[in-house]
Every structure is written in structure tokens, then in C-alpha cells.
Amino acid sequence: MITIRLADAGKRFNREWIFRRLSYVFAQGQSYAIIGANGSGKSTLLQVIAGAMNPSEGQCTYTHDEQSIDGELIYQHAAIAAPYLELIEEMTAKEFLHFHQQFKPFQAGCNTDAILNTIGMQHAADKQIRYYSSGMKQRIKLAQAIFADTPVLLLDEPCTNLDQQGYALYHQLIRDYCSNKLIIVCSNDVQEYDFCTHQLNIMQCKQA
User: Fold this and answer.
1) Closest among 45, 50, 60, 59 to 13, alpha carbons compared
2) Which domain does 94 fall in, by range?
3) Helical H runs in the chain?
4) Based on the structure, what is the number of domains in the chain?
């Protein structure tokens, strides 16, 4: 079981504290929503949790079955989908998922063809991603994260560019493939995080 702990953690850019004195525990098998207004720092907090940024003060630590994990290696245990992470648009969907699988294997019983069929994109499997609509690209982003065989799933505005059918697919994928994961969703859209059992409002973490 993976556990992520923030202990008096804070992140500052120049003189502005994005969040400060934040202590929180994220545990595998639970789902968490990080909420707050646009520009409040949700994505920054998620990047600290993901090990992509170091906190300016305090600590972010990781344990797996009570054994410490080096922060530089947490990426091996986590998958992420976010607007600022780009797809390789010269690849087809099939090529991209196969490429991604080399770094993070899919969950047992899943393969590229089955995944594309599940997300309703089998018809575009051999088309270059650069020709996809924004909604199709978002489905691919979600697929590479959700189907990865990792205990941690990090989602930043996961339904960006999705229509109502896409929202329904997102919730179905969460139900079917993520029941045992540690899920963290950054969003101010309740439809993206209404399944989460815990909420952390970053607006309450901005003490000077």
C-alpha cells in the first residue's frame, strides 16, 4: 500500500506562498479532491505530490508497505493526466499507447486494442494524434494514466474538452479500473471529483 505524507509543506514562488503549513496524508484505496479557484495553486500542489517539484519548506514523503520510497522514484508508482502534459502528436493512438506501455505496463488483462475499444477510439487507432479533436486527445491522456498498472493516479482537470459522453466514460473508467488506487483529482468542477471521499481546499492552506 502506498501512502503519501505532507508535513508542514509549503511552496513559494518569489515572495508568494502558493500553500503553506500543509500537513495531510493520502492513502491507497482512497480518493481525494484538491479544490479551489482557478489560479489558486492546485496544479502546483499536485506537482509537489508527484515529486516533480520540491516543497520550499516542510516535507513530502512516500512509503510503500511502510518502506520509504525515494522521492525521485515516485514516478514509477504514479500515473498522471494533466492539461500541461503533451501527447506525441506524430504518433498514432496505437503507437502512443504501445510506447507508453514500455515505461508503465498496463493493468492485467488490458492491451492497446482493448483500451482503444473501451474508450471508443478503435476507429481512429491508426490516425496520427495531431488530427484528433481536443476531446479525442483527452481520452488518450486519460487512457494512458488510468490503465497504467500503478497504485497512484493523479488527475488534473481530467474532463478538459470532454462532452457529456466523455464525462460518463471518465466515471465509468474510474469505477471499473481504479477501485484500489490512490486517486487525487485537482478540479473546481464538481462533476470531475464527485466520487471522491475526501476534499482538500487549497484556499485554506495559504497562511503567511
Assistant:
1) 45
2) 2-204
3) 42-49, 93-101, 112-118, 134-146, 164-177, 190-193
4) 1
